[in-house]
Please model this.
Amino acid sequence: MDEQKRKRVVILGGGFAGVYTAIHLEKALRRRDDLEIVLVNKENYFVFQPMLAEVVSGSIGILDTVSPIRRMLPRTDLHVREIESIDIGTQTVITTPGFIPQPNVIHYDHLVLALGNVTDFRGLRGLPEHAIPFKNLSDALYIRNHVIHALEEAAIEHMNVELRKQLLTFVVAGGGFSGVEVVAELNDFVRQVIRNYPQLNPNDLRVVLLHAQDRILPELDKELALYAQNILTRRGVEILLKTRLEAATGDEAVIAGGIRIPSKTLISTVPSSPNPLIDGLDLPKEKGRLKVDSSLLVQGTTNVWALGDCALVPTVDGGTCPPTAQFAIRQGKTAAHNILASIQGGEHKAFQFKELGKLGALGHRSAVAQVFGVNVSGFIAWFLWRSIYLMKLPGWGRRMKVAASWTFDLFLPPELVQLKLTNSMGVAHEHFEPGQEIFHQGDLGDRIYIIAKGHAEVVHHDNGSDILLARLGPGEYFGEMALLNQTTRNATIRCQEPLDVLSIHKREFSVLAANLPAMRESFEQVMKKRRQGTAVQVPHGLSTDYTDGKE
Ligand SMILES: Cc1cc2nc3c(=O)[nH]c(=O)nc-3n(C[C@H](O)[C@H](O)[C@H](O)COP(=O)(O)OP(=O)(O)OC[C@H]3O[C@@H](n4cnc5c(N)ncnc54)[C@H](O)[C@@H]3O)c2cc1C
Model:
């Protein structure tokens, strides 16, 4: 097939909406190769979010809720990268650099926006620093490890009774489905495993659910919501209704009105906000969600599609679809059909789907369900919940693993292993050998480097020749210009002798620069001097040519 004529569909997001769009595109294409499908997602796996709460309690294994996207989509070109920007005008998407800091630009003929939403704590005092979101696998894993850590600390805290109580208090904010499911699993977990801590008194455990409205699970009929409230209360969850979380510190959750709950664990499933990438697009939106027509085409465009939690999709009865997996999966099928119809010529289909029901797990073999208009609760609802979601999991292998985990869970005590995972390479020691290039002119600026030992050359390539701009040694730094100016690298840094550096990722560097004005000023002064080619203190001789805003 002529590469020029091959159309490229780029799907952003590998959640329910994005993955199911690609699944249906692959199905429709079969052996044809006149369409290229590219999917960009932060992770190389798809998360089955409805079962995430069970990872917290260990009812299922850590990897049981996720499936590798490559296996689900063998014909799709998967880019495991963070999306940095989307340019509708030039029909391009830019992703963050990988091992080599070069920009990755993806051109599209059709764009599918399936980026979901985010839990956004901005503007809420102390929440960005101290509240834990509950949205993806890493959150579930973090919560689980944090809760076990709090129990371990409480077990050896003999002197400070208040601290021990604080460690044994777990607060969840948000009484929607995800908040209720996580509080139920967390409550079951801590009340079961406390038996393994003879130093701790189960009566000191406190699990609190905060909800702003007058009943939890507002998505369900009142009768079912009250049933859920009753069950949770009987099992020891304190439910505080009409209570809004206002702020947080590392020691307490602060409720509007001034009440403070001492706790070292605060999980918040609210507020839900649009993905910042969607927020930044100049496309029609309502409450942060992209406005699409019934074919899922973003209003006013001919090749940009949006679905799932980031889109406001009209329903046949004049309403809009709720942000649930049930809808995202079906929207994927409609989007795939309509994209192909746009490319090959054909009728667009309108998205039509009537919700089948709603299910919420309450832990410990009980749940609430509204299926085909019938309300069910207790064990039958729980059985229904497990059967339906088991069948919805992608792949028989995964289904069998989860079924086995659930079976063992009936007889065995919950897993109590705390996995200590170290995070991010925000600040790292790096080593380079002579001749190696640390970064190259034209690369994206992703880190700043401080030389600990050794020397490096700053070289500018111009019209096929290399101009040596400077020689840098211990205590000096390079790479700040591209970060501060948000541009690409203006020069290449080449290692002359074995070089040890401390490198700081732009994320951490931006935080430092924003909060330490003196540091930012000092960087800006050096930058200015470097631009002017004047006396920057560089030992071992600086080239006179250190001009033109080169690094
Ligand atoms: C804990 C929990 C329980 C739930 N339970 C249910 C349930 O029982 N039933 C139900 O129907 N719904 C449930 N939902 C809601 C359901 O999961 C969502 O409606 C569904 O996931 C929406 O799919 P989506 O594809 O639009 O977004 P998502 O599934 O959120 O997918 C978005 C994808 O985009 C990726 N992404 C975002 N930004 C970037 C970026 N900058 N670069 C690269 N990739 C990016 C993300 O990594 C993610 O993979 C639950 C949600 C949660 C959080």
About this structure: The radius of gyration is 27 Å.
